[in-house]
Amino acid sequence: MASRTLENPRDRLVTMLVTPLMSCGARLPVYTLLIGAFFAPQIAGNILFSLYIIGIVLAIIMARVFRTWLLPGESEPFVMELPIYRLPTLKSVLIHMWERAWLYLKKAGTIILALSIVMWGLFTFPTVDKEGYEFESAVEQVENSYAGRMGKVIEPVLRPLGFDWKTGVALVAGLGAKEIVVSTLGTLYSIEDEEGLAEEEEPVVKSFAQRAREQSGYSPLVAYVLMLFTLIYVPCLAVVAVMKRETNGWKWPLFTVGYTIVLAWVVCFLVYRGGLLLGIG
What we know:
69% of the residues lie in helices and 0% in strands. The chain is mostly helical and 281 residues long. It has 2 domains: 1-22 and 40-70 and 219-281, no CATH class; 90-216, no CATH class. The radius of gyration is 21 Å and the shape is globular. Keywords: Membrane, Transmembrane, Transmembrane helix. Residues 48-100 form the Ferrous iron transport protein B C-terminal domain. Residues 105-248 form the Nucleoside transporter/FeoB GTPase Gate domain. The chain crosses the membrane at residues 21-41, 47-66, 101-123, 221-242, 254-272.
């Protein structure tokens, strides 16, 4: 919506196409979970900063590519009249805080809640196998659920990036809202651990990092690649809906979905394979 300030239609469209590459607040929970689990506190800030820088650099590169080949034409200078800077008043700060908090509560109570219910259903059903017998364990049930089947279908595409079907399910869930990636990963990696705790006489509670390493072979490199993929791939459904409204059609929103998926795969493949060659993984 901020692109409305641009008078040139081509510049406005290019801005809409590259804006999803910038890190937003919805991606922060994913960054926080993975950085806290796999990286030392001494470098955590640098890891987070690198993600923001990569997003900005990719946006600049893609804007140049789109403006040169996809939407060529004369560039127009952009002049913006900035308002007078004043110290904010306590009232304006409180109003702004309330507006942002209310917007997030609305999102959490509608989109995120609805998607969480959908994911619960996909993880829960079916409750019996093809022969009508109940699954022997919760792990087996999740693997054969609709979500598990979906994850295993896309696993061959994600395997070159170091991801398994569980990560694939989380990424699909993140299409609606990136915050869902965290809850989905937490659910998937806690099931097997809960069964192990029930069988042990003196159970030891494992951290998310331990469970992810044991069940999916996660490493700091894989965690970083997952954050990169979350940064680049499809913007959430709300952004796609706004793009559809601003462009008066589905052409450019669907193009954005497609190119961000391809770009995310290519960038993450290069980073992951490069990391393995350097012995980082």
